[in-house]
């Protein structure tokens, strides 16, 4: 039986299903999931652990759960994104067991350490309604809690995905930055925010964020808030390799928003049109190159436990 407690701040739940990405956490995600499940069961909660052969199969399962059962991804930001459609605008409680390389969404929620006991304690807290980004690319709609990047940082993500898992999220992304310097390309980009053009010209990077960082530690949108109903747009104007080095250093610490080669804007909707298709990463997962992306905020549309 699912128990809920409706309050001004959210609801709690006693039923959970943990959806495990078996490759996450250097293969340790299943062990972490079982450890969290044991703590929840010891507290009198009902908890199932599910492993599926694909994200699509996991999502199909999540969409069949009773309304009050919490959907809890066990993995990184990509695992969270894959299961998000089952929770957006449904009222279903949504949780998180951080087990990826970067865990940038967990960072946005203020998580700094995640032992099984700490995770279980968070999952037993009330929910808070958070904003979600609805992203349309290649004729498909995706949802994101953290954000996406195109151009240089997507190339970085592609290289990072090839790095040994022992480097971790930040180490892999830093190595990817070094390798992506040799492939630096500037492409024509036009960007609108809430219908107004905010940039048109050569660019090496375009990012739209809900959270504050990606790549396990690069603070691309240091002023991002998960409940303000606004997205954060960051565009990098054309720059040479020599100029990119200090700019990346500023980005690492979130000190780039006033840099003359950076365009920063906030709003509810944005569109990015590239003259040629460029690579894109969304919540850490790579997607085929595309030239057109539309994104909008869906305010307070997912209820996250312990947020």
From TrEMBL:
Listed SUPFAM superfamilies: NAD kinase/diacylglycerol kinase-like (SSF111331)
Every DAGKc domain range: 11-139
Gene3D superfamilies named in the record: 2.60.200.40, Probable inorganic polyphosphate/atp-NAD kinase, domain 1 (3.40.50.10330)
Keyword ATP-binding: yes
Short name of one Pfam family: DAGK_cat
GO annotation, cellular component aspect: plasma membrane
InterPro entries attached to this UniProt entry: ATP-NAD_kinase_N, Diacylglycerol_kinase_cat_dom, Lipid_Phosphate_FormReg, NAD/diacylglycerol_kinase_sf, YegS/DAGK_C
Record keyword Cell wall biogenesis/degradation present: no
Domain of life: Bacteria
Keywords linked to the UniProt accession: ATP-binding, Kinase, Nucleotide-binding, Transferase
A GO MF term: kinase activity
Entry-linked PANTHER family: LIPID KINASE YEGS, SPHINGOSINE KINASE
Protein name (Swiss-Prot/TrEMBL): Diacylglycerol kinase catalytic region
Native source organism of the sequence: Truepera radiovictrix (strain DSM 17093 / CIP 108686 / LMG 22925 / RQ-24)
